[in-house]
Amino acid sequence: METSENDADKTEGLAATEPVNYLQLGGSLLIVLLIGTNLLTWAYYRNEARTAASATVSPMAAPPTAPRPSQRPEAMLAVNEAPQKTDYAITNAHDHLYMLKHLDKYMKAAKEFGIERTVFVASSEFTFLGTKGDMTKLNDWSTREILKAAKKYPGKIIPFATLHPDDPDKVALLKEYVAEGVMGLKLYTGHSNFHDRSLDVPEMDPVYAYCAETGLPLLWHVNMAKYTKELFQVLDKYPNLTVIIPHLGVGFWRPDGQVMGEVEHMLATYPNTYVDTSFGTREILVGGLEKVTAYTDIFKDFYEKHQDRIVWGTDMVVTGNKEKTEAWVKSVIRACRDLHEKDVYTFWMAAEGSGYAYGRGDNTYGTLRGLNLPDDILKKIYETNMDKVLASVDKK
């Protein structure tokens, strides 16, 4: 039914004379005020981060051959100098491999950048497919795929198995893996997306006990912002358990915050614990590099204090993704080395326009501040610390 002009006039009149709901109006104003406050807070802290970064990174003129941010890693590799340090037999203590057919590009890049051995950890479907993946699937398949890689490159690949807490006969399965050549175990149960029970649940005790008794190292993703108490309960019960906590316990996001304090306490209290230097892939990697740029002195102090308990890793996740070419892999390895070896370096993913820049930033050439660690510390994080972690299984 059509509405006549008179009907329209009546509707307008009703709307104009309807009493004002002051409670509803007040609520709307409060929401607008909260949104505005949040935007102002975000702008303030974003400016603080930029100020901190600019305070630690001196403005640098772009080199005349520097590629524009839209160019691919092949171009960036062409103008970047090689890593400053060359006399290391590096062990990459943390990465993932999807399929054996994806491995060769990584091995070529690793050889060029001085990586002698790589720990590849088995992963569930969730790691490779994200939220579409099932955390209980592919664990066994992935472990056996990593074992195939180790057989193809003997002495170059260090295979770490993985288990899900719901797997039946977990210890029997782990023993089978070890008999086939597995040299460590990766657990994801302290990852926020995987954490569906306490880390110290009874069903995991046999696994922890087996690892502690045999010296099998455990690379254990634990978000120490959430699950530190549970982790410490396990470490108290199994003091001989050798554990590597990746990503600095996810403390790198707030290097001056509580989590890094918990990491320091762990390293001071439990002598068989270590941390790895990996951040993650793409945006997470860039975010970590930006944090080091902004808090260089804090990270340098941490490395100096805990130089005997840090191992180096990349965690780029080697897959068949079209983006992850050999040049892409090289660029990630280079950035992870440059972070530790140089005062200042560039990384294309951090450059304005890359799509991965922190906050889609304004760092035109991806200029970052590194730690420029001395040779004795580099040798430990690249080589000898991981030798200690693997000492028990190497003997066997």
Main attributes of the structure:
alpha/beta; TIM Barrel; 8-stranded parallel sheet; two-stranded antiparallel sheet; about 45% helix; disordered N terminus; about 400 residues
List the helices and strands and how they pair.
Elements: H1 5-17, H2 22-56, H3 73-79, E1 90-96, H4 103-112, E2 115-121, H5 125-129, H6 139-152, E3 157-162, H7 170-179, E4 184-190, H8 205-214, E5 218-222, H9 228-237, E6 243-245, H10 258-269, E7 273-276, H11 283-294, H12 296-305, E8 310-311, H13 326-341, E9 344-346, E10 367-369, H14 375-389, H15 391-395
Parallel strand pairs: 1-2, 2-3, 3-4, 4-5, 5-6, 6-7, 7-8
Antiparallel strand pairs: 9-10
Helix pairs in contact: 2-11, 3-13, 4-13, 11-12
If you had to describe this structure to a student in words, what would you say it looks like?
- There is one protein chain.
- With 396 residues, the chain is of the alpha/beta class.
- The protein has a single domain, classed as Alpha-Beta Barrel (TIM Barrel).
- An 8-stranded parallel beta sheet has the order 1-2-3-4-5-6-7-8. A two-stranded antiparallel sheet has the order 9-10.
- Helix 10 links the parallel strand 6 and strand 7.
- The radius of gyration is 25 Å and the shape is globular.
- The N terminus is likely disordered.
